[in-house]
Write a structure and sequence with these properties.
Number of strands: 15
Radius of gyration: 24 Å
Strand content: 15-25%
Distance between the termini: 73 Å
Helix content: 40-55%
Oligomer: single chain
Mean pLDDT: 93
Shape: globular
Largest sheet: 7 strands, mixed
CATH topology of the largest domain: D-Maltodextrin-Binding Protein, domain 2
Number of helices: 17
Structural class: alpha/beta
CATH superfamily of the largest domain: Periplasmic binding protein-like II
Number of domains: 2
Length: about 425
């Protein structure tokens, strides 16, 4: 073989590869899953596939611990150092969009077809972010417990009403077989409160804010329905149905160990419960407290930062990541709900007949996103404190009135948050 010809051919090939790499515009992504090896490996595989599948964009990932992620984004925004692709928690997105940290995502309607609606982050009539998964909460119980206590097994079409739910707690308490009838998850704080507990309020007919205007919490958080909710919430603890405080280890294993008859928990705990030997666990729908059964919705999503000069590149990456095979892989890897029926059918746990299949139905039938407002990030903290105070014996009406005043002051201070 002619050496000069070989060298010339190699040079041409090398130059072509370099030219292709040079043509790829780098898109830096920040991600909240630092320290979670499984999650990071799954994301890295999607990024690697995307970078190899086209010649326009080159995504690189920088991961942060979840506990410090939001603060890192806010600090970077103030310093003008945001990446192009942001990972954002669904209920936080409107605040970041309003503040200019994010911009609309120019993604095609076809790419979103068939997705759980709660996985699509919208603000001011535009799509800003899209998630690869969803999460749902259910009432964990043992079928043997229901049978022993003579309780009807509720269904999506016929959930327990208030009387049936409280009757179930009373029966469990009276049996003497449990430390507490109900584990709402008091070891967890922060976003768990509005995500897990505001649906009870909404089922009573109240809310954290008035969603018709987003200009006030008056009436929504301190009206008759909200006070009825607050009285019920407080009764869980004063009547001894649930623990006021709880250590994290007991939260993780209390239901498995038989300390609680019922536990309010997410799909992410389902596999551990099954692996813990609870082979007759049933995942029951939320009770209906008068205005329909409700569970929380909206998980982590991807979008374009406000300073990104290539939102079309971000959209291209997100569309690539939304392929069913990736959604299924994330679900199998980290246990969360895939965002399409097709992807669910490809998974181990959410396919028809799968151990966690009920959670997909719960997301479809009962899910309600948290208030879609930039002010949510403040209102959520106010709501958490109010519920913690009520659980510890504070006057319900006074506590809710004070919470309304604090939320309304924040809304007014921020000019209505653009609503």
């Amino acid at each position: 073989m002619n050496l000069s010809t070989t060298l010339a051919g190699a040079l041409v090939a090398s130059t072509s590869i370099v030219g292709m790499a040079a043509a790829q515009t780098e898109l830096t992504m920040w991600y909240h899953g630092g320290g979670n090896e499984v999650e990071s490996d799954l994301l890295d595989s999607i990024v690697t596939d995307f970078n190899a599948a086209q010649s326009d964009w080159m995504v690189s990932v920088e991961s942060f611990p979840q506990g410090s992620y939001n603060d890192s984004v806010v600090a970077a925004a103030l310093a003008g150092n945001l990446p192009c692709i942001l990972d954002v928690d669904g209920p936080v997105m409107p605040n970041w969009a309003w503040a200019g940290y994010m911009q609309p995502l120019p993604i095609s309607d076809a790419a979103l077809d068939g997705h759980l609606d709660s996985t699509i982050g919208r603000w001011a009539g535009e799509v800003y972010s899209v998630g690869l998964w969803e999460a749902a909460v259910a009432l964990y119980a043992r079928q043997s417990t229901l049978d022993a206590l003579g309780l009807r097994t509720p269904t999506l079409d016929a959930p327990w009403d208030t009387e049936e739910f409280m009757g179930a707690l009373e029966a469990a308490k009276a049996s003497g077989d449990y430390e507490f009838a109900f584990d709402p998850g008091m070891a967890w704080t922060g976003e768990w409160y509005p995500y897990a507990f505001s649906p009870f309020l909404q089922s009573f007919g109240g809310d954290i804010v008035d969603r018709s205007t987003y200009q006030t919490a008056e009436g929504a958080l301190n009206g008759d329905a909200a006070i009825a909710f607050g009285d019920w919430w407080q009764s869980l603890f004063t009547e001894g149905y649930a623990p006021v405080s709880q250590d994290p280890a007991t939260r993780d294993t209390g239901f498995i160990d038989g300390k609680y008859a019922f536990s309010w928990n997410g799909n992410w705990a389902g596999v551990a419960t099954l692996d813990g030997g609870v082979d007759d666990v049933v995942f029951l729908p939320a009770p209906d407290f008068g205005n329909g059964p409700v569970i929380g919705a909206g998980s982590w999503q991807f979008g374009a930062s406000g300073t990104c000069e290539h939102p079309d590149g971000v959209a291209a990456f997100v569309e690539h990541a939304l392929q069913d095979e990736y959604l299924a892989a994330f679900s199998d890897g980290i246990g969360l709900i895939p965002s399409t029926t097709e992807a669910a059918a490809m998974t181990t746990n959410y396919a028809p007949g799968g151990a966690l299949e009920p959670f997909f139905g719960l997301s479809e039938a009962q899910a309600l996103v948290r208030p879609v407002s930039p002010g949510y990030v403040v209102a959520a903290k106010v709501f958490e404190k109010a519920l913690a105070d009520i659980a510890n014996g504070a006057d319900v009406a006074d506590t809710l009135d004070a919470a309304v005043d604090e939320i309304n002051t924040d809304i007014e201070r921020n000019g209505g948050y653009g609503h």
